[in-house]
Amino acid sequence: MTDLVHPARALWWLFEPVHAVTYFLPEGRTAFEEAGLHGRLHGYFGTRAAPLGAVDAPPVTAAFFNFAPAMVERALPEVWGHASPEEALTARLKASAAILGRLLEHVNREQVELVAETLEQAAARLDCAGRVLAAANAALPRPSGLYERLWQAATVMREHRGDGHVAALVTAGLDGCEALVVRCAMDMRREMIQPLRGWTDTEWEAASERLVERGWLTAEGTVTELGRTRHQALEAATDLAAARVWNDYPRAELDRLAAALKPISALCRGELPINPMGLPDNQ
Length: 283
Hints:
By secondary structure, the chain is mostly helical. It has 14 helices and no strands. The chain has helices at about 5-25, 25-35, 40-50, 55-65, 70-75, 85-105, 110-125, 130-140, 145-170, 175-185, 190-195, 200-215, 225-245, 250-270. Helix 6 packs across helix 9, helix 8 packs antiparallel against helix 9 and helix 10 (about 175-185) packs across helix 12. The radius of gyration is 19 Å and the shape is globular. The termini are close together.
């Protein structure tokens, strides 16, 4: 890992693709459909929200943060009439086993075990106070299969970071749509992100206008120096909120984890058709 990047961020860049593949690759869609979760909305919201139980749309809208409420409401609570949370949890582990088993077929199994065990140990040490998605995922039973263990540990870690990121966004005064508008003004494509998150053009433009009024964006939609400074501050707060679990690890151990995780992450990242997480091109 480079000293120019916070260790919590550098590790997130590496374990995020391990989590994300389950929602984007064909084996995931197949497993979800076999469980009764047909279509992208039911597959995604049903499996990601399943640790929370058979919840309605409002708490999922709050926890996921940057999805339009109307999009979440198209999936929840209807999805639970097609598959129970328990069935959705089984489906996502089945998907992770199929996907990671294929992608990591030629990766040394001891290397995969090292990563899975290290992430599990880190996940077990997390303080999940104030982090609902992380807590719900951390409370799930430990899977028996290696690839399922790897996926679940990566998922707990990324949901923990995500919960902290939501807290940083709220503290910065941003709502879900505004956070996306800022990011797209910086380095992501609106035409990719907006449909995935379900915001209408009217909602997007209203969020842009609010950001102009608050000095985050120019009238032309570019990020101001104030906006860039505040965005950097909230990203630093996200790193700080995710860092505590890693603070006691010697740098040599973090480097060892990163080195073992990097080829695994690269194989997963190479299969992702899109990059809605905003991961850097070069890790």
